[in-house]
Amino acid sequence: MVESFKVFMYEPNNKTKLKFEKPEESLFYSSLQNSSFITQNAKEAHMFFLPFSNDISTRSLARLIARIRNDLPYWNRTLGADHFFLSCAGISHESDRNLVELKKNAVQILCFPTQHHRFVPHKDVTLPPLSNSHAPVSAERLGGKFCVVEYGNDVSWVGEALRLGCVPVVVTEGVINDMPFMDVLRWGEMAVFVRSEEGVKRVLSDTWKERQHEYMKGLGVVASRHLLWNYPPLPFDAFNTIMYQLWLRRHTIRYASKAFNNSIL
Q1: What's the CA gap between 4 and 45, in Å, rounded?
Q2: Distance between CA atoms of 50 and 84, rounded to whole angstroms?
């Protein structure tokens, strides 16, 4: 299964050290570089990783994709669908063909919570935030059972709250589709989602059956290990769960070379 998953990493677009916006990006990149997932033989790779700095310009990124498209055969087989890249903020909508294919087809690995309209639910992945050991988890606990999380604010302590058995009550104005590992973790069964502070009050005033709360708390405690970053990585931690999500996305359509080459602009 995932043990046989192989990733080919392109050479970075410059010789200087890559710049990342958040520490979890750097942790993922370092972990991938030093993992057994990396192969030097592109022919045995299931997916291809595009490394670039977070401060790369739109024009330079388009040129990078164009160079890979023209110099190597791998992008054109799937129009980038078996490629992935790391970008905390994600890629905005652009008109350049190379960036359109990158945004539409390649798997984006973004930081949670994501910026509006930059996360594509059926293919993209979010990095769980690095746990903040100084976060006021105990101060956020309500009734000893729940912790209030305002979506879009500091969420670095969510994993720690789950580990401590505190069920998150997530305050959000709309549907959330970018929670970390949504195709792996059952967020709907281990957290409560409400639209306002009034919703928080209703949760606290409801008569929660002890068995229901214990079930949610138990799921959260087990799930918390998937949100934990380690270096070097450990089984079932954040890095390995991301790689599992990529493994689930490894099946893509590959186009016949002649048919595609005839349509290259």
Answers
A1: 10
A2: 6
Cβ atoms of 101 and 76 within 8 Å: the answer is no
The two three-digit tokens of residue 142, written as one number: 């309500």
Nearest to 32 by CA among 47, 14, 15: 47
**167 bridge partner residues:** 146
Structure tokens at 250: 């490894």
Convert the pLDDT of each residue in 50-96 to its tens digit.
999 999 999 999 999 999 999 999 999 999 999 999 999 888 778 89
Q: How many helices (H) and strands (E) does the chain have?
A: 11, 9
Residue 246 and residue 37 in contact, taking contact as beta carbons nearer than 8 Å: no
Distance from the first to the final alpha carbon of the chain: 38
Q: What is this structure's pTM?
A: 0.89
Q: What's the CA gap between 136 and 140, in Å, rounded?
A: 6
The predicted-structure confidence for 10-49, as pLDDT tens digits, reads as follows 998 776 789 999 999 999 999 999 999 999 999 999 999 9
